[in-house]
Inverse folding.
């Protein structure tokens, strides 16, 4: 009798912004998700969601094949909570950790487009975290590094019609249109939350190619160098 | 890159001669500070920064009494209607690493009220848009203070 192929279960964790999200997929199909979009919930929400979601899907932690963490950039505290939980689980279970940059997820969930995709997150102090992507057939390729620059320098970075995506798009909509005119393409309806299926699909691609992170050295993509004078 | 210099607008500049007068100003000030704003406090040791903050939080209706977070660096208070106030004290701040571990921007750029004692120790980390409260001793008057409140925007 042939062995039944083992189902690959991925557990996704998103805490890079307002959303506290936990997602489960089995062989690249979304099994379930739990998310809250309210303040101060990461430290209380994520572990609870993991427990509840596993119970509701009749799974247990040891059945997880890998943990996929939304790697930032984003909230310093949020990312640390997400990483702590993700690292704790993979350390205990001896399973791989997969990091997926948060901007990659935003670009991916927008879907295929003939325009380049500019994913950004408000970094405060008139700065944004961002990266530029292009769809080549069914492949999304990141064509810049993840970067931190001033919002006002956008005209130097965007030279053609480009789709803008990210959690802060609604808030920056009119500023983008003022700065870039017709080059700023906003896809409606504007997506405000990172999508668990997109995080897990990108995680799945990394799982298949064994792009696992080193538990001891990996850390969130903070991007902003910490500097200042005391 | 264009660097915009913050404009300052004086909201109040007043001499007070009793703790009660200081508390009254703190209470009055609490009615105009909005969620998402940062208030930086300046003043020598014993000038009444923590006292001002206690009165401010009491007027805001926090469920906890404000106490000095000299050792914890941050205290969290909240009200019945879910307003969070974060109270920082950087008097005992040792090094930059300590500050890095706090993730200050997550506090300063969210929908909280942040009250920062010894703000002069972390000036380069403060948002440009902020309130500044300065408490100066009045010579020869133990309870006398000059209170200056400025809004930078």
């Amino acid at each position: 009798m042939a062995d039944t192929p083992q189902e690959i279960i991925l557990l996704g964790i998103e805490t890079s912004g307002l959303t506290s999200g936990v997602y489960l997929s089995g062989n690249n199909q979304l099994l379930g998700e739990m998310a809250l979009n309210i303040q101060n919930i990461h430290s209380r929400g994520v572990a609870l969601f993991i427990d509840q979601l596993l119970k509701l899907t009749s799974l247990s932690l040891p059945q997880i094949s890998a943990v996929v963490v939304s790697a930032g950039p984003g909230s310093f505290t949020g990312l640390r909570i997400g990483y702590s939980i993700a690292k704790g689980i993979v350390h205990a279970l001896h399973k791989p950790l997969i990091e997926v940059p948060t901007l990659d997820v935003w670009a991916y969930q927008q879907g295929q487009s003939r325009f380049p995709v500019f994913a950004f997150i408000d970094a405060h102090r008139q700065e944004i975290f961002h990266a530029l992507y292009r769809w080549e057939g069914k492949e999304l390729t990141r064509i810049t590094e993840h970067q931190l620059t001033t919002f006002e320098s956008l005209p130097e970075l965007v030279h053609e019609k480009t789709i803008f995506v990210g959690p802060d798009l609604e808030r920056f909509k009119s500023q983008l249109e003022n700065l870039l005119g017709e080059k700023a393409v906003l896809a409606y309806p504007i997506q405000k939350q990172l999508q668990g299926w997109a995080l897990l699909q990108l995680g799945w691609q990394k799982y298949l190619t064994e792009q696992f992170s080193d538990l001891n050295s990996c850390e969130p993509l903070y991007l902003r160098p910490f500097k200042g004078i005391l | 890159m264009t660097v915009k210099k913050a404009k300052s607008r004086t909201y109040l500049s007043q001499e007070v001669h009793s703790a009660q007068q200081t508390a009254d100003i703190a209470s009055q000030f609490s009615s105009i500070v909005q969620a998402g704003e940062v208030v930086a406090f300046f003043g020598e040791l014993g000038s009444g920064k923590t006292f001002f903050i206690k009165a401010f939080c009491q007027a805001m209706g926090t469920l906890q009494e404000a106490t000095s977070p000299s050792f914890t660096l941050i205290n969290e208070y909240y009200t019945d209607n879910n307003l969070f106030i974060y109270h920082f004290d950087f008097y005992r701040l040792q090094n930059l690493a300590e500050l890095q571990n706090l993730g200050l921007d997550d506090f300063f750029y969210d929908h909280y009220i942040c009250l920062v004692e010894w703000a002069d120790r972390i000036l380069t980390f403060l948002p440009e848009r902020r309130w500044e409260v300065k408490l100066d001793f009045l010579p020869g008057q133990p309870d006398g203070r000059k209170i200056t409140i400025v809004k930078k925007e």
In short: Residues 103-186 of chain A form a domain with the Nucleotidyltransferase; domain 5 fold (CATH 3.30.420.200). The mean pLDDT of chain A is 94. The two ends of chain A are 69 Å apart (CA to CA).
